[in-house]
Amino acid sequence: xxxxxxxxxxxxxxxxxxxxGFALMAAPMPRPVAAACPRPRGTGGGLSKVGGVGGLxxxxxxxxxLTVGVLAVFAPDLVMGGFMDGLGLRSKVTGSFQASGxxxxxxxxxxxxxxxxxxxxxxxxxxxxNVEHVTHxxxxxxxxxxEVNVTVRIPNTDQARIYKTCRILKASLxxxxxxxxxxxxxxxxxxxxxxxxxxxxxFKGRAEFSNCF
Length: 213
Known about the structure:
Elements: E1 46-50, E2 55-62, E3 65-71, H1 76-87, E4 92-101, E5 106-108, E6 112-115, E7 122-127, E8 138-142, E9 148-153, E10 160-163, E11 168-180, E12 183-193, E13 201-212
Parallel strand pairs: 3-11
Antiparallel strand pairs: 1-2, 2-3, 4-5, 4-13, 6-7, 7-8, 8-9, 9-10, 11-12, 12-13
């Protein structure tokens, strides 16, 4: 997708331009699926069968952390969820957000997160439990310049509101040394108070997150 503002080429499902932060579309974070087992890197490691699901599981312990690849033919979400639980890597999110004004009057308490690497940006997407039909989502995006934007999906629409300057807008985004299917884990926190939005799209809240893949 080509940004109409600066001309930068972005991934097809990107919600904001990776260069200038221009709103491209309110695309849902993709449903978590088990990807093909990556080729082991470094020394050691191996492959073992995942019994009963027709899949393969590869695990490599390397110098930079843990790299895990999963291929599941049947019930990939169930396999992935149970496998992540077993490793203690289930995403964790605490906190909540409130909208007001033109954004509507609603509250959102995300329960899971995804790494922005899936859609070509540095940051995280904070999501509800049901990722097959996402009605609410908050994305925390760090631009190449270091600036942080917060993008909020307007429920039941194909639009999103991007906040760049607010009374409070701060975030801490860190990549971990753990990767799953070549997606680096993210952790951190965000706090936003945009109740003074000049166009009347009020939004505020805070959240902490970890194990975002």
